[in-house]
């Protein structure tokens, strides 16, 4: 597909060369049309939509996204953006003054702020690994991170693709090396989905959060949080709502908590399958596997 034909699928200003797609993304008009139809359907019958249709639609969207990410659908929750996913994990876990929270000097500012804030409230210490620059090898990155691990290290927060410097970090090697030392990893994968091959089951990270509005071109407000099954019991969304004490037994507490945090517009998440199918049509390598 030629560049002009490709660009015609977006409503971007034709007088602007839009090169910073990684900042906020841009959604194809065909996907925005689906979102408009979903919103009209919601507003035509809000009770009918939320009580009778929403859960099924959300499960279908989650299943499609899970197939793309090579993850179990039961391990995925929709969140509004990757920063919210990072915060949900950091603010759910309990830390003490004896704990160390490890990150790198390439960590995204918003996520680093969340890490610093949580540390300041718990007394934990933030430890920063300085990565070799400008062209580090995977082995050098792993060595730099492991050199800062101590018996007090509780969690490692790391970008999959660094926002400031666009380094693709050796996430699988880092996750494995940290797990061997009893440390779980929280991957800030804001730029990962759609940019690099991604199999969350094979990766083995305790936590991975990523955006769907960037390189998957879904509407803004669509992102996900993956939590490995053995760690889900300790996780809560940023807003605790009805799922916390729901008597239902047909769904996990993790799903009950994250699937309903109050009345909101769910259409960005529901459009994720449509965005994936659209991108598959334009760029076959980027679509569902």
Short description:
It holds the Pfam family Aminotran_5. By secondary structure, the protein is α/β, with parallel strands linked by helices.
Largest sheet: 7 strands, mixed
Main CATH class: Alpha Beta
The name of the CATH superfamily reads Type I PLP-dependent aspartate aminotransferase-like (Major domain)
Helix content: 40-55%
What CATH calls the topology is Aspartate Aminotransferase, domain 2
Please, how many helices?
12
Radius of gyration: 19 Å
Which descriptor suits the 3D outline?
globular
Percent strand: 5-15%
Q: Uncertain runs with pLDDT below 50, 5 residues or more?
A: none
For the largest sheet, list the strands in their spatial order. Answer: 1-7-6-5-4-2-3
Q: Separation of termini?
A: 21 Å
Helix-and-strand structural type: alpha/beta
Order of helices and strands: HHHHEHEHEHEHEHEEHHH
Overall average residue pLDDT: 95
Count of folded domains: 1
The CATH level-2 architecture is identified as: 3-Layer(aba) Sandwich
Question: What is the number of strand segments?
Answer: 7
Protein name: Isopenicillin N epimerase
InterPro entries: Aminotrans_V_dom, PyrdxlP-dep_Trfase, PyrdxlP-dep_Trfase_major, PyrdxlP-dep_Trfase_small
EC number: 5.1.1.17
Enzyme class: isomerase
Q: How is this structure best described in words?
A:
It is a single chain. This protein has about 290 residues and is of the alpha/beta class. It has a single domain, classed as Aspartate Aminotransferase, domain 2, CATH 3.40.640.10. It has 12 helices and 7 strands. It has helices at about 5, 20-25, 30-45, 45-70, 80-90, 110-120, 140-145, 170-180, 200-205, 255-260, 265-270, 270-280, and strands at about 75-80, 100-105, 125-130, 155-160, 185-190, 205-210, 225. Strands 1-7-6-5-4-2-3 form a 7-stranded mixed β-sheet, with helices on both faces. The two termini are about 20 Å apart. The relative contact order is 0.17. The mean pLDDT is about 95.
